[in-house]
């Protein structure tokens, strides 16, 4: 078990992608459990999906911090691809911990809109790394820990399951995956060169209330509610390590408090204080089963009628380009180092999503 070497109390945390699904829920959890704390959030609030959901999340953060006047929340509407904006935030607030969750997400979107991925995932992350590097200028304490989002997509079409962080991941099947693997390589280089403690987190299919509308479960819900047919890829034989948002947030918070140790090697140079972990449910579910439970919970919540004919609205179709047939996380390293394993079962998570969907849209 790794020992905590960072206390979050009285710390200034920079959180990129703060209006996003994971970022907003992370901020809510931190304000609920750590006080006092100062969080600086940045998000460009782009229209890749409904901005109204992002505004909803930010309003929840405003309401949460209002209950904790000893803490503070500052939101910057801007892009991490804008170097001057990033540098200004570091100069003004001097964050101790950086959680980089800003990224252009989505496998299929990367096929038709590659520019967005280069700008946010590569240039934006480079700007964060450079700012972390210069946070030590003049002998300053600087950034104690950089935690950043990677993705299960880096495993590409690996046949061996469950996916382990020891596996070779040099064959991405989408530009999105390539940018996420690039983030890990860039972080390692900066950790080695400038002794920046960094931890990458490979997230596995995160879902839950107020999630991303571009995710399959959300899109399925919209279509089923509209009486449209849904397409289930690979003829229903896809398996996903669906991971509930609260489990993801708990894992991130534990990782934030245990930065890789700074160690000097025999050559007198730093050994890169660098780590990568999987965060997944370690229990993949068949997509067809997932959708069946989803429609049951949508009926239970009143989003769909009690006599809804699910079978009449599903189509089994071939695999989409860039997709993989299975994601399955080996989370043994996360369990060994942090004593943590996601525990929310699929029905519980989908029930909470279905109820939120009804409250938000109906």
Automatic annotation (TrEMBL):
InterPro entries for this protein: Epimerase_deHydtase, NAD(P)-bd_dom_sf
Keywords: Membrane, NAD, Transmembrane, Transmembrane helix
NAD-dependent epimerase/dehydratase domain ranges (all copies): 13-266
Transmembrane segments: 12-32
Family annotation (Pfam families): Epimerase
UniProt keyword annotation of Transmembrane helix present: yes
Gene3D superfamilies tied to this protein: NAD(P)-binding Rossmann-like Domain
Protein name from the UniProt record: GDP-mannose 4,6-dehydratase
Organism expressing this protein natively: Faecalicatena fissicatena
């Amino acid at each position: 078990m790794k020992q905590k070497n960072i206390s979050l109390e009285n710390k200034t945390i920079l959180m990129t992608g703060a209006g996003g699904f994971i970022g907003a829920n992370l901020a809510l959890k931190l304000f609920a459990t750590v006080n006092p704390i100062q969080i600086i959030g940045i998000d460009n609030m782009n229209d890749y999906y409904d901005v109204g959901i992002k505004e909803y999340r930010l309003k929840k953060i405003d309401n949460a911090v209002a209950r904790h006047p000893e803490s503070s929340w500052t939101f910057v509407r801007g892009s991490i691809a804008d170097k001057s904006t990033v540098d200004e935030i570091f100069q003004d607030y001097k964050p101790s911990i950086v959680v980089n969750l800003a990224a252009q997400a989505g496998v299929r979107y990367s096929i038709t809109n590659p520019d967005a991925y280069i700008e946010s995932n590569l240039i934006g992350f480079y700007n964060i790394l450079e700012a972390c590097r210069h946070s030590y200028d003049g002998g300053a304490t600087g950034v104690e820990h950089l935690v950043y989002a990677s993705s299960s997509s880096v495993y590409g079409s690996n046949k061996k399951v469950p996916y382990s962080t020891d596996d070779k991941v040099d064959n991405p099947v989408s530009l999105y995956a390539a940018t996420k693997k690039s983030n890990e390589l860039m972080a390692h280089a900066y950790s080695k060169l400038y002794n920046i403690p960094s931890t990458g987190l490979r997230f596995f299919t995160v879902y839950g209330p107020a999630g991303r509308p571009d995710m399959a479960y959300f899109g399925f819900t919209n279509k089923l509610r509209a009486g449209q047919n849904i397409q289930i890829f690979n003829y229903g034989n896809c398996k996903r390590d669906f991971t509930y948002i609260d489990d993801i947030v708990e894992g991130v918070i534990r990782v934030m408090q245990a930065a890789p140790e700074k160690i000097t090697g025999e050559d007198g140079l730093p050994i890169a204080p660098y780590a990568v972990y999987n965060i997944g449910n370690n229990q993949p579910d068949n997509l067809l089963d997932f959708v069946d439970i989803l429609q049951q919970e949508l009926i239970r919540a009143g989003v769909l009628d009690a006599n809804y004919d699910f079978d009449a609205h599903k189509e089994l179709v071939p695999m989409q380009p860039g997709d993989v047939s299975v994601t399955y996380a080996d989370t043994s390293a996360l369990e060994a180092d942090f004593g943590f394993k996601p525990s929310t079962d699929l029905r519980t998570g989908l029930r909470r999503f279905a109820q939120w969907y009804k409250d938000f849209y109906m």
